[in-house]
Amino acid sequence: MEQPDNQVIILSGGEPLAADGEIILPQDAYVIAADSGLHHAADLDIAADLIIGDMDSVDPAALAKAVDSGSLSETYPTDKDRTDLELAIDAALDFGATKLLIVGAHTGRLDHLLGAMGLFAATATRVDEIVWTDGLTEIFGCVPHRPATVAGRVGDGVSLIPASTDVTGVNTEGLKWNLSDDALPLGSTRGVSNVIEATPASVSVESGTLLVVHERSRA
């Protein structure tokens, strides 16, 4: 069933979400849980429409309960060539998603984190909007013609991480150190540890892919 704006929420695995986090969920979105990402559904008071993965880390009782309540389930072999998150993103794109909100926390494995960020950056060029959040940190994929708007608080941290060889025409508004038609080549740390001075802040690029990392201040 197609939803307004083709908005899909993907629940990714990892540690439990922070109790003091801020996660605003879109209404009427299709919800996909990537394996143990299903565990976040109860905390967020939402139901998964689809649960996908090799099911090696999801609680069997939680999975059975969700299926009994109407969730669809797609189980893959443990020996597969894609992560559960990639399976979930592929399913969302097959669904026709143009906006993706990925909700999940760091798993503690650096290889998973690096792989997930590469996947996130690659997906940013295929949708109108992609955001990842754990309630305390949110990441926006910023590509040409799709600026990122950061509706944080004054004093929040913002870092700009190049995810492609050449990110050019970088323009920001609302930050302490703004960039105007600047370039951030792959490996540059020039965009790390900026601060919001006016909200909402915005970031745009003319070429390349930029990860905009927003760290919420704890009031």
Blueprint of the fold:
Elements: E1 7-11, E2 30-34, H1 39-44, E3 50-53, H2 60-68, E4 72-75, H3 84-95, E5 99-103, H4 110-124, E6 129-133, E7 137-142, E8 148-150, E9 157-162, E10 166-173, E11 182-185, E12 194-195, E13 201-204, E14 210-215
Parallel strand pairs: 1-2, 1-5, 2-3, 3-4, 5-6
Antiparallel strand pairs: 6-7, 7-14, 8-13, 9-12, 9-14, 10-11, 10-13
General description of the model:
The longest helix is centred in the middle third of the chain and has 15 residues, at 110-124. Helices cover 19% and strands 31% of the residues. The protein is α/β, with parallel strands linked by helices and 219 residues long. Helix 1 links the parallel strand 2 and strand 3 (50-53). The protein has helices at residues 39-44, 60-68, 84-95, 110-124; strands at 7-11, 30-34, 50-53, 72-75, 99-103, 129-133, 137-142, 148-150, 157-162, 166-173, 182-185, 194-195, 201-204, 210-215.
H/E topology pattern: EEHEHEHEHEEEEEEEEE
Structure classification: alpha/beta
**CATH fold description of the largest domain:** Rossmann fold
List the uncertain runs. Answer: none
State the end-to-end distance: 40 Å
Domains, number: 2
Principal-axis shape equals globular
Computed over alpha carbons, the radius of gyration is: 17 Å
Please count the helical segments.
Answer: 4
Helix content: 10-25%
- The share of residues in extended strands comes to 25-35%
The major β-sheet equals: 10 strands, mixed
CATH architecture of the largest domain: 3-Layer(aba) Sandwich
Tell me the total number of β-strands.
14
Strand numbers in spatial order across the main sheet: 4-3-2-1-5-6-7-14-9-12
CATH domain class name of the largest domain: Alpha Beta
